[in-house]
Design brief:
The protein has 406 residues and is α+β, with helices and mostly antiparallel strands. It folds into two domains: 6-244 and 393-404, no CATH class; 248-368, Conserved hypothetical protein from pyrococcus furiosus pfu- 392566-001, domain 2 (2-Layer Sandwich). The chain has 13 helices and 20 strands. It has helices spanning 14-17, 27-34, 42-45, 60-75, 108-112, 124-137, 152-161, 186-197, 208-221, 260-267, 316-325, 349-357, 372-380, and strands at 6-9, 79-81, 87-94, 97-107, 116-117, 139-140, 144-148, 168-171, 177-183, 202-206, 232-239, 245-246, 248-252, 271-276, 287-292, 295-301, 340-344, 363-366, 391-392, 402-404. The strands form four sheets. The protein has an eight-stranded mixed sheet with strand order 5-10-7-11-4-3-9-8, sandwiched between helices. A six-stranded antiparallel sheet has the order 14-16-15-18-13-17, with helices on both faces. A four-stranded antiparallel sheet has the order 2-1-20-6. Helix 4 (60-75) packs parallel to helix 6 (124-137) and helix 6 (124-137) packs across helix 9 (208-221). The longest helix has 16 residues, at 60-75.
Length: 406
């Protein structure tokens, strides 16, 4: 990990610039959100909103427009660059939940050797998109969300800086508060670098495509530039015990040709099934909620089916897939099968009821959230989690700090 010369909004423009991550809004949502807001970072992260409506979001003109919009904000003085390399304290507040970490740049070399650890497969088309975006902007603008095992000394440094006046304190449209402090103490910067370098690993929580793209850009630029800024990628890192994973629930279009009664009988082969009087939000691992035919059921898996020394197989998402969704509903590949969809827990269990009651879906499952220690165990084992295993909230903002590739 090392500090960097952040490209960031002048304080009075921070609220105008800050935007949701590029991948949580579609083009139309981004266009509506950025309307009348010329300084919104969506003009850089989703630049197709400034082109004709039928524009392919992956067309070369889109990346060129993003670069043009970034240059405009720099030229107008909306974005400035710090004169010396810095870290930044980043605090997220969502309701009563608070997490405090820092912004820095992580080593591509350590990513390539799996010291910055992964837990997901990436898709080549999404990697290609991020490579083209980095190349066009000559900057990394979407931070990778990292977790590290909680460290009291590091937390003490960050919390101490967070007692001083902040650079920005921005409340986003969704009510999440993003607060940023500049770390300009050489001693604090050196201490943070040393503490993180002493950690055996960092863990990618969200941003696998951004980190993979950074690695590809670094490899392509290795022999072409005299500077090494391309050898590091933009990150925001938080201690594992402050991060929050929500449940990631499943909805299925049909019962694989079964009647509801026959379906329930098959589920009982591997689960204890009990009808519930209210919504089932599982309060412990290996328990699931199921919404079918206007009723909720509580499912508890047969404990003999839970593998002992398999960090992936022990995950609730894996157990539900292996012992119900695949054998009973016939969905072997949830990554590609169009009969299954995924609903982030932030939307609530009412969204599951709505999808089923509308007739669009036939059955829904609520899950207990994956835990951070489970994610780290999977990454430590050099394994990959099933698709849609984690939903992190609150989300980072785009635009508060970017990393220019000199």
């Amino acid at each position: 990990m090392r500090p960097f010369r952040g490209l960031r909004p002048v304080p009075e423009r921070a609220a105008d610039v800050a935007a949701p991550p590029y991948d949580v809004l579609n083009t139309e949502e981004a266009r509506a959100r950025a309307k009348g807001k010329p300084n919104s970072f969506l003009h850089i992260s989703k630049p197709e909103i400034d082109l004709p409506q039928d524009t392919d979001p992956y067309a070369p003109a889109v990346y060129a427009k993003g670069a043009e919009n970034l240059a405009r904000l720099i030229q107008q003085g909306v974005l400035i660059r710090d004169a010396a390399p810095r870290y930044y304290v980043y605090r997220l507040k969502m309701g009563n939940h608070v997490q405090t970490g820092f912004v820095g740049t992580a080593s591509v070399a350590d990513y390539d050797t799996n010291r910055v650890r992964k837990h997901e497969f990436t898709r080549p088309d999404k990697e290609d998109d991020r490579v083209r975006q980095i190349d066009a902007l000559n900057a990394q603008t979407g931070p990778v969300l990292l977790a590290y095992r909680a460290n009291a000394k590091l937390q003490g440094i960050l919390d101490g800086i967070a007692k001083t006046p902040a650079l920005y304190d921005v409340t986003a449209d969704d009510g999440i508060v993003h607060t940023l402090w500049l770390i300009d103490s050489d001693t604090a910067i050196a201490d943070i670098t040393a503490l993180v370098d002493a950690m055996p690993a960092l863990y990618i929580a969200d941003g696998h495509h951004r980190s993979a793209a950074a690695s590809r850009v670094a490899a392509a630029r290795k022999e072409k530039t005299s500077t090494d800024s391309h050898s590091y990628f933009l990150t925001v890192a938080f201690p594992h015990d402050q991060m929050r994973i929500f449940d990631y629930n499943r909805v299925i279009k049909d019962l694989n040709g079964l009647t509801p009664e026959a379906f329930l009988d098959k589920v009982k082969a591997n689960f204890t099934v009990a009808k519930a009087a209210a919504q089932v939000k599982p309060e412990k691992p290996t328990r699931f909620g199921m919404y079918l035919g206007g009723s909720w059921y509580q499912l508890d898996i047969n404990e003999t089916l839970i593998p002992k020394n398999d960090p992936v197989g022990q995950l609730d998402v894996s157990l539900l897939q292996k012992f119900l969704i695949d054998p009973v509903l016939g969905i072997a590949d949830p990554r590609r099968d169009k009969r299954i969809d995924f609903v982030g827990g932030i939307r609530g269990l009412g969204e599951l009821e709505k999808r089923v009651n509308s007739g669009e879906m036939k059955v829904a499952f609520s899950l207990h959230p994956t835990r951070l220690d489970q994610l780290m165990a999977v990454a430590d084992a050099n394994e990959v989690m099933p698709p849609k295993s984690t939903w992190f909230e609150p989300k980072l903002a785009d635009g508060l700090v970017s990393h220019v590739l000199d």
